[in-house]
From TrEMBL:
Subcellular localization(s) per the UniProt record: Cytoplasm
Function description: Presumably involved in the processing and regular turnover of intracellular proteins. Catalyzes the removal of unsubstituted N-terminal amino acids from various peptides.
Cofactor note: Binds 2 manganese ions per subunit.
Enzyme class, first EC level, given as a word: hydrolase
Descriptive protein name: Probable cytosol aminopeptidase
Record lineage: Bacteria, Candidatus Doudnaibacteriota
Amino acid sequence: MNFTATTKKPNQTTCDALIIFLRQEETVPEEKIIDALCANQIKKMRESGDFSGEASKVRLLFGLENLPRMILVGLGKNADLTLEKLREACSITAQTLKTLPVTRVSIMMPKIPKASPDEVARAISESLILAAYEFPYYKTSKQNKPKFDDIELLVAAKDKRGADKGLTEGRMIANSVITARDLGNHPANVATPEHLAKHARAIGKQFPQIKVNILEKKDIEKEKMGGLLAVSQGSNEEPKFIILEYLPKKSLPTVVLVGKGLTFDSGGISIKPSDKMEEMKYDMSGGADVMAVIEAAAMLKLPVNLIGLIPASENLPSGAAIKPGDIVTTRSGKTVEIVNTDAEGRMILSDALDYAKKYEPDLVIDFATLTGAIVVALGDDIIGAFGNTDKHLTALKAAAKATGEKIWPMPLEKNYEIFIKSDFADLRNTGTMRYGDSIHAANFLRHFVDYPWMHLDIAGVAWATREKPYRPKGATGTSVRLVIEFLKRFRK
Ligand code: BES
Ligand code: MN
Ligand code: ZN
């Protein structure tokens, strides 16, 4: 999708459709009219109640003198109007445009309370691209792909520079979210650990400022990454440990991103029920998100040294697979009794979190589809955020407010430590108390951490079984926009 900002007036455009956002209170659309007929029509539609400006209500006007189509999109009440409301309205706009024979679209940039032209433009390009997203790779029949791809934002002269910047930034960020979505949607027979490694190498080619290093099985053995090796030993696919380094300047703060890259989670010997097991191809979403954020960091030139660590593996049952009761030694030297082979995420993350220490990081953030329990607790639209640093959690909350990707703080409850003590090893990989598994998992990870750290349990948000605004069904890439925003504002 191509975006430009222009100072043209609405009656100077030559588009196939002109989009006008209107709030509930806006009776006379002042500068937004293109001619007398248009003004008259809008007025009549408001009087008749055909268009109230209610949030995300859409009406199409046809047969205007100077314009093929005009699409009115409601923004709701001014008092409730936020960037997220605008993103939702753009999402509906994209759904409408998809069904029309429209290529060139002009949009009158709306004013959003407390938001700069830069932010408004960014929200528009970001949400239009994300809402139009499709995953067509495995359909052999010809798809009617959305045709609209040329978008012109009509702005006042004083807003032009900000709008240009916002449009570009929104496009870059949305495209990295799409990277993450695609990786999550590809089936596990394609998106193997090797495929993730290939993708990382491709990022390295595209962005020479990102250094990519893949540890192969023999290197992983040398590193004594016992958790990753144990989880992968039941599979024919070899594990990979993917390292991406974007290090623009020594004096900048260092942040390590760790992502769970479990390309298929059958549960292993503690096998999962078959219902919905096909969705477990998205168990590498954390790894995908890390690659997406690093890609965006290079494009946006974010002022941080950023390292991505992705332990990648399958979790399958076989004669070679780990068994309940097995004890393994992780890279840190700590031993773990594998009570349930389905609690594999924390095993592979333990080695990556330990590896992160060598960067002497100012902060480590891990992304993982770690527990079903977080979905029970917070549902499919809220990230569970654990951490040992209140300052960064507060900053993450602010980034969540700005991006609309919601987080909720979860406790690293010290009194629950007793539930992950093993009778035979240092730790067990599941809690002896069945409930509160998201907390047991986070407490488990804490044993491998000696730096400021946040753990994002994205099991609920990474996959959509229902349509959400600008998040179609399937892999969502949720947390990418959140963490990019967080890193943009990052202070040690
Ligand atoms: N990948 C799953 C967590 C998950 C569940 C992600 C549902 C997305 C949706 C993880 O590896 C897992 O299987 N966790 C177990 C842990 C249990 C055995 C202690 C779970 O949540 O059931
Ligand atoms: Mn599992
Ligand atoms: Zn898993």
